[in-house]
Prior knowledge:
Blueprint: E1 3-10, E2 13-19, E3 21-27, E4 32-38, E5 42-47, E6 50-54, H1 58-72, E7 78-83, H2 88-93, E8 101-106, H3 109-118, H4 120-123, E9 131-135, H5 138-143, E10 149-155, H6 169-178, E11 179-190, H7 195-209, E12 214-220, E13 230-236, H8 247-252, H9 262-267, H10 273-287
Amino acid sequence: MELWFSEFHAPDVKHSIRVNRHLYSKRSDYQQIDIFDTPEFGRVLALDGNVMLTERDEFIYDEMITHVPMAVHPNIRDILVIGAGDGGVVRELTRYDRVERIDLVEMDPQVVEACRTYLPENACRLDDSRVRITFDNALRFIRRCHSAYDLVIVDSTDPFGPLEGLFTREFYGSCYNALRPDGIMVNQQGSPFYRHDVEAMKRSHKRIVSTFPISRIYQAHIPTYAAGYWLFGFASKTYHPIDDLNAKAWEALGLRTQYYTTKLHVGCFYLPAFLEEIVKEVEDAASQH
């Protein structure tokens, strides 16, 4: 019998992956957690039926959400990571010697436990001495933080259901307050292709634009995410993502990457015409308020 895992990318579009074995299945207090072993993508983590990561392409997401801000801000030492219980973002951040503290705030302890067991390549640096894991509601946690971080990475799932609170104006305002005067916030912005994803992206970008003086969208191609096309947001109090990129300094670190390069860093902020139009429309609307 053939086993396939299918995920709706849109009401009329499904993405299916052949499964060798269903390795893990558990309903936590917050969500359904599944881990599959697949011939094409290796191990796949799904939450509530949505693919969060696969062994085959997770490097793209994790590198693009971490190295972009790290190559722009020369003095990032204290970092807050929201979500990312699989550990991939933390793994990338711990490669920098200058990082002194990484606070990881994850809602669901069961996700961390499952990934430690079944996705050890991602979770391998969760026990680094600089990492402190807090199981809490991120909105509640960040409200208590003031000028505490140089970088906030919001690696949450999509803006539906229990995590909708991480896409509100109040939340982005709390992120702003949690950052130091030259701090950066980076977040995942979803896919700009299917209609309901575009609407969610527009809402969150509008709220970020009205909170931070510098706000840009950048892109990456991730095969297992909706339409294979994914966006991130770069928001800052001081640094511009292209003008303040110090390519030579980042290259001198000698970090080996599979996706991110300093040339790609510049290129990923240049958006296709249809997306440029959407972003301009959002930014114009935000500036009128």
